[in-house]
């Protein structure tokens, strides 16, 4: 087994849904799932394409977004390492409804659709996991719509960071988030400069600390409930 294969297997075995599988089921997952590399700015998948894989993030960061005909962009969410997405399109067997782009160089795990549906048919715990995943995703997207329409940028940045710590969707993140101010701006719909101002506000409130190479979360509950002062 090569280093990359070993690393992929390790990532699969650490997935939230992996411990519930039987050894035989896990063996098929490891045999069928493969890895691709997507450079910063590249497409992990494209809107309108036929969905062939369930997608997991081994390393890097991916954003799910769409572009209007005029070129205006809307970002739905960011997916950090440990997160998986695309189950909705696989279940509905419809073309993908969004683009997924790498915010930085990313290693991507791709589980073929046949393997995904085989697990769905043969593993009740995996089916239960997907129900929870879809429910969490729905709640996340409702929050995104609310944040975009009702909240100021400082609060949107706080909620954007907080959503990365959903243990159901994105397990395994520690308190230091390796994310740049530019990436925070892209995920929260703000310029890099405005996102930086918001992060400084949140730092002064004692909710986070700007460290070299990332952002250290000091008060997650505070980020979730933060509201900018009038």
From TrEMBL:
Q: Where is the HTH crp-type domain?
A: 151-221
**Keyword hit for Iron:** no
Kindly state which keywords UniProt assigns to this record, in alphabetical order.
DNA-binding, Kinase, Transcription, Transcription regulation, Transferase
Instruction: Output the SMART domains linked to this UniProt entry.
Output: cNMP
A GO molecular-function annotation: kinase activity
What the entry lists under InterPro entries is as follows: cNMP-bd_dom, cNMP-bd_dom_sf, Env_Response_Regulators, HTH_CRP, RmlC-like_jellyroll, WH-like_DNA-bd_sf, WH_DNA-bd_sf
Residues covered by the Cyclic nucleotide-binding domain: 17-137
Specify one Pfam family. Answer: HTH_Crp_2
- Annotated Gene Ontology cellular component terms: cytosol
Q: What is this protein called?
A: cAMP-binding domain of CRP or a regulatory subunit of cAMP-dependent protein kinases
Q: Which organism is it from?
A: Pseudoduganella namucuonensis
